[in-house]
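User: We ran a pulldown and think these components assemble together. Before we commit to crystallization trials, I'd like a predicted model of the whole complex to look at. Sequences follow.
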Amino acid sequence: MAPHRAPEPPAGAAAVTENRTGLGEFDRIARFFAPLAADPDAFGLTDDAALLRSSPGRELVVTVDAMVEGVHFLPDDPAELVARKLLRVNLSDLAAMAAAPVGYVLTTALPAQRDDVWLADFARGLALDQATYGIRLLGGDSVSTPGPITLTVTAFGEVEPGRAVRRNGARPDDLVWVTGTIGDGALGLLAATGRLVGATPPHREFLADRYRLPQPRSGLGPALAGLATAMLDISDGLVGDLGHIVETSRVAAEIDAAAIPLSAAATAALAIDPARLSLVLSGGDDYELLFTAPPHAAEDFRRLADRHKVPITPIGRIRAGRGVTVRDAEGVEIRLSRGGYRHF
Amino acid sequence: MAPHRAPEPPAGAAAVTENRTGLGEFDRIARFFAPLAADPDAFGLTDDAALLRSSPGRELVVTVDAMVEGVHFLPDDPAELVARKLLRVNLSDLAAMAAAPVGYVLTTALPAQRDDVWLADFARGLALDQATYGIRLLGGDSVSTPGPITLTVTAFGEVEPGRAVRRNGARPDDLVWVTGTIGDGALGLLAATGRLVGATPPHREFLADRYRLPQPRSGLGPALAGLATAMLDISDGLVGDLGHIVETSRVAAEIDAAAIPLSAAATAALAIDPARLSLVLSGGDDYELLFTAPPHAAEDFRRLADRHKVPITPIGRIRAGRGVTVRDAEGVEIRLSRGGYRHF
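Assistant: Here's a predicted model for the assembly, 688 residues in total across the polymer chains.
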């Protein structure tokens, strides 16, 4: 994790000064990041690279996600929470491939005004979730930026050879399943920004937490290796993400809006304003798993879900054809448009 | 390589609009990046993650480097060159571990004003160096930013198990070697920014090119696996980087300034202003290998260097003790200070 810098800022470049407390990049790495990299393969972050090893007989999987201040999180969001969300969106991608998390490398581009208090909070968040998910920091890069905080995590997972679950295996008659509850992420963004009119404080808090801190399905995901025919994690919205599965699998899907599992808080929010159904169907940031599997496997899936204490719900079926159709309780198609949804 | 975005910019965040030409992120990925990811393990960039495989019996090595517009490159630098430098600084880190390059994942955080012409040039640069170094794009993330272009590459290499060369193995009496010529990077930054007074146009051009486009030693580096006792690539400057080796190896080093290999352009620049020696000794961005090895191995190293057509030069020796000492042709110690250097 060598600090990476030009010999001096190029002429014409914005001036980038040392951070306020004057701790150099080497000291920052030694203080905040080296304690997170106790694994011998990380070489204490002193080398140019780290070793990357999987368990014997396992295959490695790699994913990468970036977060930018002002785009993916708010400037005032607690650094600890930013760190945990950054790790968790990556862990959710690994779970969606049915891979068990192993470790990660990290890049931080920080403006000079961010002091070591921010970095200490950020490192504490990483440490917390390293412990929660049993992962290790393997290396990284630490640079200055005249712009917003920009963070990148490349995460590594492992899976039995040939058993990673892709998006392209959905087949006609497969059931469409989701984990947990859907729509909390999008409703939570409204709640976190004071725009969820009419919700009770406990519901607002529940939904905002769901938006701020995803719960990657790192236990159940790997258990579905070789069993689910297609899988991804819902980050772009239920209908949009199911669209990715049917497109790469060259099939169609029908989902039953009434079957979509909702939290109590989301149910209450929909009762106040039924138009919020469009957020449930097409809002993002749920980080729940969306997967398909033949109907005869339903009982196996329920047992796995029980074992991992993750609720799973069938919400529809794969068909021959193209596209995603959503039907209400009467079987009438719900059409999504940019402005919301309407019945036909 | 899923485009990653919040459902909408959070309240209070800078507005981030679609790029000017209106190509969405999915289309941008399909047009510019998917052609770079022909490898089946990359799944055409349609999935949440990619497979990461090494050759049978090899161990994987991972490194990561970020570059920020205005810090590591100029806003007007050609996008093709930015792409190639981004890959090459990572490949240089792999070479420094004696690892042969395999592939990489990429994160781009781009401001809305950067149009698809920039991205097309950037992708062409990646394609060029993928071919040059035999590497493949495995995945990535593409986000918007209200700030400067921020790019991260996580690169993967492979090495025989246990033969990666670290920084901590230098032993007393080892020779200190460098590849290529030293100081061109720092002098090249002066040349590229119009500050290398007195140099001829061909010399300015040569040096500026050396600064703009590193030549990672991706052939020789892996050949030194298990042979060099310590190695890194010179990015922080010869003396500073040798300092990293002696610190982690708990030894000292003496180098002979007169033995440091210089390009004709650097020799001319020093003749014009001998004070520029400080840039040769402590300027960065050379991306040459600096390694140590027992003296009896010298002939083996020369043969390997010949085979890979990379000049190597012994410039000093490891001693017991601490720190790095530089001596001039008369054996007098040259002391480096922030302002330059002085004789004692």
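The first helix of chain A runs from residue 25 to 33. That may be worth checking against your pulldown data before setting up trials.

User: Thanks, that helps.
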